[in-house]
Design a protein that fits this description.
Helix content is about 50%, strand content about 10%. Strand 4, helix 5 and strand 5 (about 125-130) form a beta-alpha-beta unit. The protein has about 450 residues and is an alpha/beta fold. The protein is built from 18 helices and ten strands.
């Protein structure tokens, strides 16, 4: 449910940012894959305990791949730690200021990253397609480009583990991964008692690895679970170590002192990580695979696909209205089932379209799975099957048509707008979408016969 709420909140923004980002023709982070085989990676998260690891991190500047996820990049700069690469996924504009004037050589950024990041980050920005960057994945499929997919987790720190595995790093060492609050502050480097009131309302008491009473929140617990599952996934090929020396700990991942980890895995390394990175970035043809892609042709393809899909969707809507009338008139079961079969035939046509299947429905399925369970549970008695089908398929129509309109509005602006309108030409990000036109009229079909149920089964992003 947390995942569904997040997608609901950011759906427009994620869609817009992906459509803008693919036009930048930046190389894939897959150029880094397996270039750091058996070199330790240190993932520097921004928990308050990181303040105690600063001197040790400075000791190992080039003997391990130092990866700074999200806010960890800002802390590294503040504390004089020269991270080799950062990783970022956040779609909001504020993310850009984490990387403003950064001295980090490489930023691995998702396609949903806010376009402002490109303006603020001064060095190499490589792209990763995270698991719900469906438009970016489709772009690679359409142009027959290789694409590496990194799982979208509750925290960018967890995605950094996946990145480290792709780099070939081993072991993978976590620092600043507290998953709780110390001194009532969110990040290292902040003042005591600066925890926002919005966070204080959801605090849960917990015990850290040192037996100290601390407070955490559900988001941290979700990240802890992600880390636990990542360790299970990679335990036969990669060693993950928690050297935070604080925090909740992660089931299955051993806790060690960072000093001991340095002595055992890092101090004896005879490598220069920055030299390896320079060799990768200096390779001839580094950008060639992307530079000749015709983004306008891709945008036009999307508009053609959307037009075709919306024609089918409107045919489906007409049939749903007829089905509603048959149900209200208590028509024969046979007549209703014939119409249901016709609507299912249109569904098969929709799903035969690769864009609809791999982009539209992949994103919307997170909403639909809960709604489907609720609707089919809610109907019993005569005509229950046809009536439940009507309610569910009307919802699918509404949701898919609105998402198609979101993609259409943004793509049309990028394809046909002036140079100032086109975001990839350097304009400021402005959502130039008339929401009333985008949403359109609402169907008269109620979401449930039960008024109380109706209140909670609302349509997202109206």
């Amino acid at each position: 449910m947390a995942s569904t709420t997040t997608i609901n909140y950011f759906l427009n923004e994620w869609t817009e940012n992906q459509l803008i980002s693919i036009a930048k023709k930046q190389p894939s982070a897959s150029v880094l894959n397996n270039k750091f085989n058996n070199i330790p990676a240190v993932i520097v998260s921004a928990g308050p305990s990181l303040e105690k690891r600063i001197d040790e991190l400075k000791e190992i500047q080039d003997k391990a791949v130092i990866i700074a996820p999200g806010t960890g990049a800002r802390i590294c700069k503040q504390k004089g730690i020269k991270a080799h690469m950062a990783i970022a996924m956040d779609s909001q504009k504020a993310e850009a200021y984490i990387f403003k004037d950064s001295d980090i050589d490489i930023l691995v950024g998702s396609y949903r990253l806010h376009p402002e990041v490109d303006k603020k980050f001064p060095n190499h920005l490589l792209r990763m397609a995270i698991s719900n960057d469906f438009i970016a994945q489709y772009y690679h499929y359409y142009l027959d480009l290789p694409v590496d997919i990194i799982n979208d987790h509750a925290s960018v720190s967890s995605s950094a583990v996946d990145l480290a595995v792709k780099l070939g790093c081993n072991p993978i060492i976590l620092v600043g991964q507290d998953l709780c609050y110390y001194d009532n502050k969110v990040h290292a480097g902040e003042e005591k008692d600066t925890l926002p009131e919005s966070i204080r309302k959801s605090l849960q008491e917990a015990t850290d690895i040192n037996g100290e009473r601390v407070y955490t929140v559900p988001g941290f617990l979700a990240n802890r679970r992600d880390m636990e599952l990542l360790n299970l996934k990679y335990k036969n090929t990669h060693t993950i170590i928690n050297a935070s020396e604080a925090g909740l700990g992660i089931p299955g991942i051993p806790n060690y002192k960072f000093r001991d980890v340095i002595e055992d895995y890092i101090a004896r390394q005879d490598i220069k990580v920055r030299r390896i990175m320079e060799e990768i970035l200096d390779q001839p043809g580094f950008y060639d695979i992307y530079k000749d892609n015709d983004i306008d042709t891709f945008y036009q393809h999307l508009l053609d696909e959307i037009r075709n899909l919306q024609e089918m969707n409107e045919e489906k809507r007409d049939m749903l209205e007829i089905l509603q009338q048959l149900i209200e008139k208590q028509s024969s079961e046979k007549r209703m089932q014939e119409l249901v079969a016709s609507i299912q035939a249109i569904n098969r046509q929709l799903y035969s379209n690769y864009f609809f299947q791999k982009v539209v429905m992949q994103m919307l399925n997170r909403f639909l799975i809960y709604y489907q369970a609720g609707v089919f549970y809610n109907f019993t008695g005569k005509n229950a099957e046809a009536e439940a089908f009507l309610y569910y398929e009307t919802y699918v129509y509404n949701l898919s048509n609105r998402y198609l309109n979101i993609i259409k509005a943004i793509t049309t602006r990028e394809l046909n707008g002036t140079e100032e309108d086109k975001q990839y030409e350097g304009a400021n990000l402005t959502v130039a979408v008339n929401m009333q036109e985008l949403v359109g009229t609402t169907d008269s079909i109620r979401l449930s016969k039960d008024k109380e149920i109706e209140d909670c089964l609302t349509i997202p992003f109206v």
